[in-house]
Design goal:
With 553 residues, the protein is α+β, with helices and mostly antiparallel strands. It has 3 domains: 144 residues, 3-Layer(aba) Sandwich (D-Maltodextrin-Binding Protein, domain 2), CATH 3.40.190.10; 137 residues, Alpha-Beta Complex (Dipeptide-binding Protein, domain 1), CATH 3.90.76; 214 residues, Dipeptide-binding Protein, Domain 3 (Dipeptide-binding Protein, domain 3, Roll), CATH 3.10.105. 30% of the residues lie in helices and 21% in strands. The chain is built from 16 helices and 23 strands. It has a 7-stranded mixed β-sheet, with helices on both faces. A 6-stranded mixed β-sheet has the order 16-20-15-19-17-18. Strand 6 and strand 7 form a beta hairpin. The two termini are 37 Å apart.
């Protein structure tokens, strides 16, 4: 690991040196001509691709936010939505028809105009996905929000929420839904529903092929992403692990203050910290808890983000018959000393989760079933269930950091010790985050337990609990039709107050039946160079719209 760390830093220095010849060290940044500066941001890994329509990984979405825009977007620093590429929108009384007035004078990076027809072309692309594009690993966000497709190729896919899109004039796009849904319009602010140039997609090909084991990405997805955002794509040097973007001077809104943005992959967090201190990068996120105060003391801008996430222990009931017994799942829950985990492994401000949504969201229920640490009772429950001597495979990811799991190995080890103290033998199965780990837990039923988490995408409880539990999923391996039906009722409730009460019922039922175990909510940190300002933190992690960033002397 030490050798790899040195190699990563060397790579970061080499890739940044030419582009930062005007002075990459912060002490020299003021020498760079006004508006001709470069910002190098350190990331943990390369993006999976350059098209957010088919990505759920943070590295892809972080880059995509600079190049693409959505019809609505989160307000700076919050979870509500405001106008984006749509200046306004209106719903019919029954919630089935949504009319969006498209902002005029907006062009894609290839010079073509954004209009109602372009909006509909994007929705039709997603809706008509076929073959491998119907895999949840490829169109996960579409399936989370809209369900199925024009022609479902799997019996497990539900009917689609989306029905049609009509461009009634160049400035208008009308979306028609098959049912009322709480997700609209908030979910349309997700990067996955960014607007792409129909001309560029046609020119370079935008249809993904291959199989779930060998996905084939077309040229558009790999090398020609074309949005309307403040930055446009320049290059992706896969060998050097570097994506370069440049200010789009035809942007309809306030122009980016920094001309060039580079995302350079430095997998080791200690190497990212070293690169920040040496001036080779000007920022990174997912700052290790132990590094936050020292970096702030050195004068770097450490920005805290509100906890809007969940770390959980997934349980696959299909993998092991013993896990179908509620008593066994309860035993696992109370065997975990979650408070000790929070206190020893997570940063200040982290808290034990009692349910699968953070306390700041409407629908959080103070009266759910609680599972306080009790190793003696855990042993008794296992004995009662005939599960003494239980052995479980615990899958956990490597080569990844998330705000909710800053050190996956440390978090795994403390849980392993707790579970083994209760008499459960744990077989570790560490897998590389992408593609191995995500594919294993989402498409197979071999993992008894797995570690994963979620950062909220928009400000509604459904985005948390609905994402996990509103339908059968491979990673949890359970079927509870009464629960699924209650989700349908909540999603279709147009009255916000009534929907909140239904969310409370859902949280109570989830914690009673315990298909998985919530562990913690964790605030995250973003660190920026000493003279880099203008970025506002967000609970949705959407603060990295870097066109607002600027250098100050």
């Amino acid at each position: 690991m030490q050798a790899f760390r040195a190699k990563a830093v060397t790579a970061a220095v080499a890739t940044a040196a030419v582009l930062l010849s005007a002075g990459c060290a912060e002490s020299k940044r003021g020498e760079t001509a006004e508006g001709d500066q470069t910002l190098v941001f350190g990331v943990a890994a390369d993006p999976k691709m350059l098209d957010p329509s088919f990505a759920k990984d943070g590295e892809t979405l972080r880059v995509a936010r600079q190049m693409f825009e959505t019809l609505v977007q989160p307000v700076p620093g919050g979870t509500e939505v405001e106008a984006g590429l749509a200046e306004s929108w209106q719903s019919s009384p029954d919630g089935l028809t949504w009319t969006f007035k498209i902002r005029q004078g907006v062009t894609f990076h290839d010079g073509t105009a954004l209009d109602g027809a372009a909006v509909c072309a994007n929705f039709d692309r997603w809706f008509n996905a076929a073959g491998v594009m119907q895999s949840p690993d490829v169109t996960g966000y579409w399936q989370d929000v809209f369900g199925g497709f024009a022609k479902n190729e799997s019996d497990t896919l539900p009917p689609s929420l989306y029905k049609s899109c009509a461009a009634t004039d160049p400035a208008t796009a009308v979306l028609t839904l098959t049912r009322t849904s709480s997700k609209i319009p908030s979910a349309l602010g997700l990067p996955s529903f960014s607007m792409h140039s129909p001309a560029a997609m046609q020119k370079f090909g935008a249809t993904i092929g291959g199989t779930t084991k060998s996905v084939e990405y077309p040229e558009y997805v790999k090398a020609h992403p074309t949005g309307t955002g403040p930055y446009k794509f320049v290059s992706w040097d896969v060998a050097a692990k570097r994506v370069t973007l440049e200010r789009y001077d035809g942007y309809w809104g306030a122009k980016a203050k920094i001309k060039t943005v580079i995302f350079t992959a430095i997998p080791d967090e200690a190497a990212r910290k070293q690169a920040l201190r040496s001036g080779d990068i000007q920022g990174y996120d997912a700052v290790a808890p132990a590094d936050q105060k020292p970096l702030a003391d050195e004068g770097f801008n450490v920005l805290m983000k509100p906890a809007f996430n969940i770390l959980y222990l997934g349980i696959d009931q299909a993998a092991n018959p013993k896990l179908k017994d509620l008593r066994v799942r309860q035993a696992i829950a109370i065997a975990l000393n979650r408070q000790a985990l929070v206190d020893s492994k997570l940063p200040p401000g982290a808290e034990v989760a009692t349910q699968f949504i953070p306390p700041t969201l409407a629908g959080w229920n103070p009266d759910v079933t609680k599972y306080p640490y009790d190793v003696t009772k855990a042993k008794a429950l296992l004995k009662e269930a005939g599960a003494e001597g239980l052995t479980l495979k615990y899958y956990y990811p490597t080569e990844v950091q998330r705000p909710y799991m800053p050190s996956t190995k440390d978090l795994f080890e403390i849980q392993k010790a707790d579970l083994e103290a209760a008499g459960i033998t744990i077989q570790p199965v560490p897998l590389k985050w992408t593609p191995d780990y995500l594919a294993a837990i989402r498409t197979t039923s071999d993992h008894d337990l797995h570690m994963l988490g979620w950062t909220g995408d928009y400000g509604d409880a459904y985005n948390f609990i609905g994402t996990f539990f509103d339908r059968p999923r491979k990673d949890f391996g359970f079927t509870d039709q009464a629960l699924f039906d209650l989700f349908k009722t909540a999603d279709a409730e147009p009255d916000a107050a009534k929907r909140t009460e239904l969310y409370k019922q859902l949280n109570a039922k989830i914690m009673e039946t315990l298909p998985a175990i919530p562990i913690s909510h964790t605030p995250a940190a973003l660190v920026l160079g000493k003279n880099l300002t203008g970025i506002k933190t967000s609970p949705l992690s959407s603060e990295l719209r870097l066109y607002t960033a600027e250098y100050t002397s």
